[in-house]
Design brief:
The structure is a single chain. The chain has about 325 residues and is α+β, with helices and mostly antiparallel strands. The chain has 2 domains: about 1-125, no CATH class; about 145-330, no CATH class. The chain contains 15 helices and 9 strands. The protein has helices spanning about 1-5, 15-30, 35-40, 60, 85-95, 100-105, 125-140, 165-175, 185-195, 200-210, 210-220, 225-235, 245-265, 265-285, 305-315; strands at about 45, 65, 75-80, 150, 155, 180, 290-295, 300, 325-330. Strands 7-8-6-9 form a 4-stranded antiparallel β-sheet, covered by helices on one side. A 3-stranded antiparallel β-sheet has the order 1-3-2. Helix 10 (about 200-210) crosses helix 11 and helix 12 packs parallel to helix 13 (about 245-265). The N and C termini lie far apart (about 45 Å). The relative contact order is 0.11.
């Protein structure tokens, strides 16, 4: 039955069989969740981030609905299997099918499917703890509220938290919350708090002052998904030297690489500096409303906040301009 399914992808190859085993690995973990499978219908598919571009075109044979995976992003979550794959996978599962040992043991880097595909992501104890934690919250009708601690500058939650899970699942469990965050947070703080030369500032200015228009321009001319472009933009700040496929981002990368070298600034040191200011701005924000969840550079609350008042308070008490935006309304 597995061989017949693989034939639906075209001529047999080892890479296609490996791809089948990756999807089956996701399916098997989903099946073994028992009661959690019904209460939490989203299926983690992190293994699939190692699937190559040329073979991901077969996704529709395996998945009927997911959370809009875009090539180049980290994989999202599977919501519904393709009925034909579901039938095949159920048959294999009930017959005790085991993924080949070489597929379980070998780890490879992303975009390398020809030899094998990574299956290193396992159903760990921490995952089970998360599902137990969420299930208990639902059964006891408890709110998802966190407490926080600085490590060393950034605010992290104590213990298990909705802060650590994918946004799709978080929104599923917190449908009555408004989601706010700072627009282009780390680059904005960098621009205002670090000593930068006039020429570099001139290059950064369009991205800082008109971030929406700037990113729309990159998207239009590069053809890359917006979220991928944002990931590349943010990676540059902390020293990523890989090409971006965009002239504007490559120019910023060149200037920023020189700046890091001239200032002898390491990524960890720069991150610590920026998150110090990030936390100051966030603390000013949350003092204006009843916050249920902090999200590093944003927060979730059932309240509708006065964005202008918060931005003014940050300017007065912290000394920097931060643009607060509402990502999702309750």
């Amino acid at each position: 039955m597995k061989a017949d399914f693989i034939k639906s992808m075209g001529r047999w190859s080892q890479a296609k069989e490996n791809l089948f085993d990756v999807y089956y690995n996701c399916f098997e973990k989903w099946m073994r969740r028992g009661i959690y499978r019904n209460e939490l219908p989203f299926v983690p598919s992190i293994e699939l981030r190692n699937a190559s571009v040329r073979y991901f075109k077969h996704k529709h044979l395996f998945v009927l609905q997911d959370t809009n995976y875009t090539m180049g992003e980290r994989c999202k979550l599977i919501k519904e299997w393709n009925p034909k794959f579901l039938e095949c996978a159920m048959h294999l599962f009930n017959s005790g099918y085991q993924i080949p040992q070489h597929m379980q043991a070998v780890r490879v880097h992303k975009w390398k499917l020809d030899d094998c595909v990574s299956l290193s992501y396992s159903y760990t104890l921490s995952q089970k703890y998360f599902y137990d934690w969420v299930k208990g919250k639902i059964e006891r009708d408890e709110p998802f509220i966190d407490s926080y601690v600085r490590k060393p500058n950034r605010l992290y939650t104590k213990g298990m938290s909705m802060q650590y899970i994918p946004s799709d699942m978080r929104n599923h469990f917190m449908p009555n919350h408004n989601d706010y965050d700072f627009q282009n947070c780390h680059w904005s703080i960098f621009y205002q708090t670090q000593e930068i030369g006039d020429e570099y500032k001139k290059v950064l200015k369009p991205m800082i002052e008109e971030p929406i228009d700037f990113m729309a321009h990159l998207h239009k001319h590069s053809g890359q998904p917006m979220k991928v472009l944002k990931q590349k933009r943010n990676a540059i700040l902390y020293g990523d030297k890989r090409g971006t496929g965009c002239k504007e981002l490559n120019d910023i990368k060149r200037y920023h690489t020189e700046w890091l070298s001239d200032k002898q600034k390491h990524a960890s040191s720069l991150f610590s500096d920026i998150t110090y200011w990030e936390t100051l701005a966030l603390e000013q924000s949350v003092s204006e409303c009843n916050v249920d969840l902090l999200m590093y550079d944003g927060f979730m609350t059932k309240d509708t906040v006065d964005i202008c008042a918060i931005e003014k308070k940050i300017k007065e008490n912290v000394g920097i301009n931060m643009k607060l935006v509402q990502k999702r309304a309750a």
